[in-house]
Amino acid sequence: MSTPTKTTGKANTPRRVILASLIGTSIEFYDFYVYATAAVLVFPALFFPADDPTAQLLSSFAVFGVAFVARPVGSIVFGHFGDRIGRKATLVASLLTMGVATVLIGCLPTALTPGWEILAPALLAVLRFCQGLGLGGEWSGAALLATENAPPGKRAIWGTFPQLGAPIGFILANVTFIAIAFSMSEEAFQAWGWRIPFLASAILVVVGLWVRLSLLETPAFTKVVERKEVVKLPLASVFRRNWVQLIQGTFIMLATYVLFYLMTTFTLTYGTRAVDAEVAGLGYERTDFLWMLIVGVVFFGVFTLVAGPLAERYGRRKMLGAVSVGIVLFGLVWVPLFSAGFAGAMALLIIGFSLMGLTFGPMAAFLPELFPGNVRYTGSAIAYNFSSILGAALTPFVATALWTAAGGSTVLVGLYLAGAAILTIIALWLTKETRDQEYVENSSVVVAAEAP
User: Fold this and answer.
1) How many CB atoms lie within 10 A of CB 247?
2) CA distance linking residue 285 with residue 320, whole number of Å
3) Which of these, 248, 196, 194, 209, lies nearest to 60 by C-alpha position?
4) Are 217 and 16 in contact (CB under 8 A)?
5) Tens digit of pLDDT for each residue in 403-416?
6) Cβ-proximal residues to 152 (8 Å cutoff; 6+ apart), any chain
7) What is the pTM of this model?
8) Which of 69, 71, 279, 301 is the Cys-Cys partner for 167 at CB 3.0 to 4.6 Å?
């Protein structure tokens, strides 16, 4: 892994690029959401036994957040190799890291197993860290695979395909949990059924590897190699020359992350908590609310595709700025929607996931466009994953704490979302439009000492 990829004179076909970027992120997000769903439904009792259900849930969410601490580490590690040896090999490695960790979670004894009371949750945390490590390198590589192969004026459109991996992975993960729940008793599900989605990941990883191993290197990285602009230390270069863009990208993603993990992890907790509990929820059956989430995620996928053409027509900043204003307003009407019965809860999920698609869709184009070609993998990955700490790792924990502190009211949770969206609006206002810039040829001028 020390020699940069050489050009072959051939090119990836659009079908190959779209399939490879889509299937890889679908698998990665499937793995991630399988854990997120289990963190709410089964892990609190199996790995963190305690008398207080809220304490169990918070402990489970704390380990859930370990992956978001790992993701910036993964962005540094995989970003280094992505900018040093190429996108293809790095994408294969990130997929293997994520997939192996997910399968091993499905093999773990629980804390209820004699002798594993401490070791089981510790190993769960380690494997969760490995999941985050893999995902930290996955997203940026898939985004570059799509956008660095895109025709002029189509980057945001092609960039929506790896973004589709998020809703597809979510639907696959939750349909799997629903199918298992319908095919066995609650006791069997708690005893061993929860392992099936984790073990099934092995099949998906094999398919993903088969597709990605057939890829050629992207034109943008090939240009970097031909011009001898590959830097020895991408991390040092991006922090020295592009630190402003790192900060901008981190906060541009903030509202997206907060919105998504409120719409998935927190709403699943709130929606399935009993109405007569000390901290009351909506009282839906688990499978019923998972179906409601799946309907909402369909809108997520549809509006992800809609977002690409809008970002090309109006520009990234204007389009995302308008959506962020919509997220602020959504946060302010959060409580009335939750309080309006089934119709209100369903409307909340549909509106929230539609906004999610509109804000998430252009990110695969916008974040990489902030950085030059020779540090693009590292820069976009770090911005994306630093934002995950602020916007995703903290969100389930903070939202649950705010909900508990308010005695079952979600008004503070809505204000939390609105505040995150305001920070994103400020970041967008301070960032230049990137729609019309050159992409394949825009490597930064490299100091001679940095060239290999």
Assistant:
1) 15
2) 35
3) 194
4) no
5) 888 888 889 999 99
6) none
7) 0.83
8) 301
